[in-house]
Amino acid sequence: MNIHIGADVDSGLTHAVSVTPAHAPGISQLPDLLREGDRTEFGDKKGYVNYRIKRAAHRPGACWAVALKASTRRPLTAANKRTHRRRSRMRNQAEHLLRALKCPLGYVRVRYKGSVKSAVQVCTLINPANLHLMRKRMLA
Questions:
Q1: DSSP states of 77-134
Q2: The predicted structure's pLDDT at residue 33
């Protein structure tokens, strides 16, 4: 089971959740995770490199921040590696939400057989994880 989230870049809060079986490609969930006003699209793996979807998602003012694929013929340059590092720091904000889902809320393994029950459990736990991330801002 894979959890795909659409998160706000500034706050790190989740606005969309998608749960798929492990064999389903993650790039297939990308259109469901994007909002109309999103300016940046991040993908955590090189499997998100799909040039057809990249061209469809490209619009004025948008940034496609998915890691590039390297090959033996065309390795990544030092500038590409710096760019990947900078993008991974920004992408890490979404990973904080998954940490909040796992550690304080105790979601470390799938408990139910069947993707529907597991998806309901994940969607139920996302809201407390958002509150866990916002606790300092709410108390201030």
A1: PHHHHHHHHHHHHHHHHHHHHHHHHHTTT---S--SSSHHHHHHHHHHHHHHHHHHHH
A2: 77
pLDDT at 57: 62
Residues of the chain with pLDDT below 50 are none
HSE on the CB side for 59, CA within 13 Å? 10
Which candidate, 124, 122, 126, places its Cα nearest to that of 19? 122
Give me the amino acid identity at 36: E
Domain ranges of the chain: 2-139
Contacts 24+ apart (CB under 8 A), 50-54: 53/27
Q: Which amino acid would we find at residue 96? A: H
Position 66 scores a pLDDT of 73
Structure tokens at 84: 């990947």
pLDDT recorded at residue 79: 92
Could you give the CA distance from residue 107 to residue 122 in angstroms, rounded to a whole number? 8
Most distant CA pair in the chain: distance in Å?
53
What's residue 78's pLDDT? 92
